[in-house]
Amino acid sequence: MDRLIYTAYSGMTGSMVRQRVIASNMANAQTVGFRAELLNSEPVTLKGPGLEARAMSQGAVHGASMRQGAMTETGNPLDVAVSGAVMLSVQADDGSEAYTRRGDLSLDPTGLLVNGDGRPVIGDGGPVTVPLGSKVSIGPDGSVLVADPATPGDPPQPVARLKLASTEGSRIEKGLDGLFRVVGGGVLPADEEAKVQVGTLEQSNVNPTAVLVEMVESQRLFDMRTKLVATAREVDERSSALMRLS
Fold first, then answer.
1. Which residues have CB under 8 Å from 138's CB, separation 6+?
2. How far apart, in whole angstroms, are the C-alpha atoms of residue 208 and residue 215?
């Protein structure tokens, strides 16, 4: 009987993890550049005399879907989108370099270029800053261009270039903060040939309809496993009663 309980209980735990992943994906269905999280489940067998048959299931987030999200034109000169095996480089809370596809850029009050999460955007010389009061735009090659409003006839001048990191051949993983990092540490190389689509944003690659179906299926599985535990307890109680009578 404990085999049934072990299996059902571990399945319930796995269903709860799956529901948390699905809820996170659903909540970020409209988040710019979001990458849907993926869940991996595998059986874990307890070792010991007479225990090998009690196989439990263990589930954990093992990565994210890198499928391209839909591109939406915004006309904003600071909105950028990248395609293929390329990501924007940003500075994480601990000062390290991390990567994202969120390209809704803006300037903070100090002239620091940040994305929609408030992460400083990294260029070829570190976090990108521009002179206050200047007119800023992004070139197709990722160049940060600055023009002085006082001299409208002068062409914009490049002050930095966004680091467009290549993920080709590298292992990256998604952290709890939603940023990607190189597995084992280190930084990704810059792709000097990469281009950006200016005035465009890549949307979340979450499919809301598919996620909703997954949520319903996960809830049904959880309910089924809950009933299995209740059934096992009922059978155990009846077996105990029959033993006492005998």
1. 77, 78, 80, 105, 144, 145, 162, 196, 198
2. 10
Question: Do you know the residue count of the chain?
Answer: 246
Write down the H helix ranges in 1-66.
Answer: 2-27
Query: For residue 2, what are its two tokens?
Result: 């404990």
Longest CA pairwise span in the chain (Å): 102
As given in the structure block, the two tokens for residue 51 are 């225990």
Tens of pLDDT, residue by residue over 130-178, are: 999 899 999 999 999 999 888 888 889 999 999 999 999 999 999 888 9
- Between CA 101 and CA 39 the distance in angstroms is 21
For residue 120, CA distances in Å to 4, 107, 134, 160, 245 come to 51, 9, 18, 13, 73
This prediction's pTM: 0.76
Residue 20: left if φ>0, alpha if ψ -120 to 50, beta else—which one?
A: alpha
Q: Contact 2/226 with Cβ under 8 angstroms?
A: no
Beta-carbon count within 10 A of 95 CB: 8
pLDDT tens digits for 152-162?
A: 888 899 999 99
DSSP string, 87-122: EEEEE-TTS-EEEE---B-EE-TTSBEE-TT-PBBE
Residue found under tokens 């049904």: 220
The 3-state DSSP class for residue 31 equals: coil
Query: Which amino acid type is present at position 36?
Result: A
